[in-house]
Amino acid sequence: MVSVAVLGAAGGIGQPLSLLMKLNANVTKLNLYDIVNVPGVAADISHIATNAEVKSFLGSGELAAAVTGIDLAIIPAGVPRKPGMTRDDLFKINAGIVKTLVEAIAASSPRAFIAIISNPVNSTVPIAAEVLKAKGVFDPRRLFGVTTLDVVRASRFVRDLRPGVDAAALRVPVIGGHSGTTIVPLLSLASTPIDLSEAEVKELTHRIQFGGDEVVKAKDGAGSATLSMAHAGARFADSLIRAINGETVVEPTFIALAADPEGAEEIRALGAGELDFFAVPVELGPEGVKRIAPLGGQPSAFEREAVAVAAKALDTNIATGAAFVTGA
Ligand code: NAD
Ligand code: LMR
């Protein structure tokens, strides 16, 4: 019995994500918030014969009500990329949007889990953390950057190379962040060993790192991944909901490493060093992050090098996000 708010519910991701949340049998209340078009989306989705009660919240005057009494806020609000843009180019607009939304959650539902989809995730999650700290309600176990699409792509792209692989069952840990070379798939530690040449590992790693660009290019100015992201967001939200309901679930997600959760040493030793945030496979429970799940083996030399490259870029992305709130 979980109450969920989708913030940015009328958007390209927001609409299919809201649909998938309405289909989730564990969701009892579904609050849909946007600054445009959300009454129509909510009216439409509300006719689906599941038990979740759907409500529409339109505009900043209804934001506080949208995030009152919720267990989980999912945030896909903000602008997407066009060809030629990086995710960091979205910072100017999306930083302020995420800050405002998290301020409202901090005031009305300070113990809610917060799952951030809005890009650039490497910076919007640090923004959220600083907002929550400033309000005195930061619990690092409850704040998540959604990196599930990288994990989903990794499984599917492996199957493109090895058609015998079951894409739905294969799990590849993807660590680091969510943009370009900060995305580090650990193909050598996949749930089922995959026999790949060095060249194939390089090719696959690059494709997973830049998978978002394939969609941006194909949509040709009409935005970025929305349907695969809605699937990934709903899968991650379902993991959080199952965790809230007492199950132990493992999912990779971008979390506050600064809080030193159990298991952080392995990731720091691998190359995350003193970084405050990093995407890692996380064991989730009713209070959120229980611990970082062990990677289950030693990453290859190629993967360790990729982590070092990721760490450098992440350091800057994280500092940019934090500074947006602290002014430091
Ligand atoms: P979109 O433009 O289709 O939808 C965004 C929605 O946000 C719109 O409905 C808009 O009205 C709403 N919005 C804007 N300002 C708002 C505010 N202040 N409060 C509430 N809602 C607001 O964009 P999209 O394709 O759905 O992408 C949304 C974001 O998700 C982008 O930043 C995109 O880069 C990101 N994204 C992240 C991932 C990931 O893996 N984490 C994947 C795909 C896209
Ligand atoms: C993705 O990975 O598809 C998203 O982050 C959207 C983007 O800008 O590529």
From TrEMBL:
CDD domains according to UniProt: MDH_glyoxysomal_mitochondrial (cd01337)
UniProt record similarity statement: Belongs to the LDH/MDH superfamily. MDH type 1 family.
Domain Lactate/malate dehydrogenase N-terminal, first and last residues per copy: 3-145
Keyword NAD part of the UniProt annotation: yes
Binding site for NAD(+): G8, A9, A10, G11, G12, I13, G14, D34, N94, I117, S118, N119, M229
Protein's UniProt name: Malate dehydrogenase
NCBIfam families listed in its UniProt record: MDH_euk_gproteo
Catalytic activity field: (S)-malate + NAD(+) = oxaloacetate + NADH + H(+)
Keyword Nucleotidyltransferase applies: no
Gene Ontology cellular component annotations, sorted alphabetically: cytoplasm
Binding residues annotated for substrate, in chain numbering: R81, R87, N119, R153
Known partners and oligomeric status: Homodimer.
Entry EC number(s): 1.1.1.37
Domain of life of the native organism: Eukaryota
GO terms, biological process: malate metabolic process; tricarboxylic acid cycle
Cross-referenced Gene3D superfamilies: Lactate dehydrogenase/glycoside hydrolase, family 4, C-terminal, NAD(P)-binding Rossmann-like Domain
Cited InterPro entries: L-lactate/malate_DH (IPR001557), Lactate/malate_DH_C (IPR022383), Lactate/malate_DH_N (IPR001236), Lactate_DH/Glyco_Ohase_4_C (IPR015955), Malate_DH_AS (IPR001252), Malate_DH_type1 (IPR010097), NAD(P)-bd_dom_sf (IPR036291)
Active site per database record: H178 (proton acceptor)
Keyword annotations: NAD, Oxidoreductase, Tricarboxylic acid cycle
Molecular function GO terms recorded: L-malate dehydrogenase (NAD+) activity
